[in-house]
Amino acid sequence: MYSMKSMKPSLPVTETHVECPVAGCMQKVKRQRNVFRTTSDFLCPEHQIFISPSTFEYKDFHDNLLWVSEPDLRLLDAIKEVKRESRMARDNSEDALTWNVFRFLEQSDLLGGWLESIVDTPVRNPRIKYWSYCPEAKGTWPSLDAARRAFGEIPKRDSEPDLIVETDDAIFWIEAKFLSGNETRPSNPNDSKQYITGCERWFDRVFQSPFGVVAVDKQFYELARFWLLGSWGTAQAGKRFYLVNLVRDQKERNVEREFGGHINVQSDRQFKRAAWEDLYRFVQGCDPGTGCVRVLEYMEGKSAGYSTLRRLVPAFSIVKR
């Protein structure tokens, strides 16, 4: 895995070619434009990465992951059976970042503590589902599957939160963002499926604004779907619901107020913004015996690719240990 320490601070790019971003490597490949492609024309033969002027992709996605033990790989193989898309190989992959950090939190029994830091209430016995995969059901988490059907979602285009954490008395849906933002709109603004009418008009109970306003005009389509399906499914289980939007510290600063102004928040359902940098500081305060050093070094060295000026950009605004 290549961190900022092993990458060139400035990437040489011409009209026709791009240098490999790994420090000391003089290999050049053809310059990619528009659509990222993974063909031999763009592969550094020395470091086995496909290169563009802004980012790169590992030929083997395992090279982008911190946790690749036999149990990890078995779980990832099972997840791929239900996950809509797999984008683990790209250096700027949200999926790889999510796996690398949250698999550590899960395995180190730190997941509950991090969630407690967000909601300020005890979190007991957290069980995590990555990209809707439920190990107990050996498939899609049944509660999510029921919610998808109840609101008329179409297979392969249905709602898929990055993480679901079920506890003894609450359910968390976590939508993790890295370089992308929360602005999303339906491909067909006139097709509201059964989001408005489904489940005895559950929409009217959990939203203050019409579907067209929150999902189309304000472009909170993805968060709106998660709030609708997650709150309904959690209500069926008789638990509290939290929708957590995990973003970089400098991004989506006002999302709690902006999206929160369109939803009905109550004591048993809440919307929270969390920052990757705060998660880093949480891990920073943990016992080194948890193995946290590896994750801290990963986040410290993580890049957000190269800017339009071809300068290497750090992923997070963090103070190193």
CATH topology of the largest domain: Restriction Endonuclease
Helix content: 25-40%
Nearest-integer average pLDDT: 95
Level-2 CATH architecture of the largest domain: 3-Layer(aba) Sandwich
Strand/helix succession: EEEEEHHHEEEHEEHHHEHEHHEE
CATH class of the largest domain: Alpha Beta
Rough outline: globular
**Quick one: how many beta strands?**
14
Strand percentage: 15-25%
- CA-based gyration radius: 21 Å
Report a brief summary of the structure.
The chain is an alpha+beta fold. The protein is built from ten helices and 14 strands. The chain is 31% helix and 17% strand.
Question: Overview of this structure, please?
Answer:
31% of the residues lie in helices and 17% in strands. The protein is α+β, with helices and mostly antiparallel strands and 321 residues long. The protein folds into two domains: 4-59 and 306-314, no CATH class; 70-282, Restriction Endonuclease (3-Layer(aba) Sandwich). The strands form five sheets. It has a five-stranded mixed sheet, sandwiched between helices. The two termini are 21 Å apart. The mean pLDDT is 95.
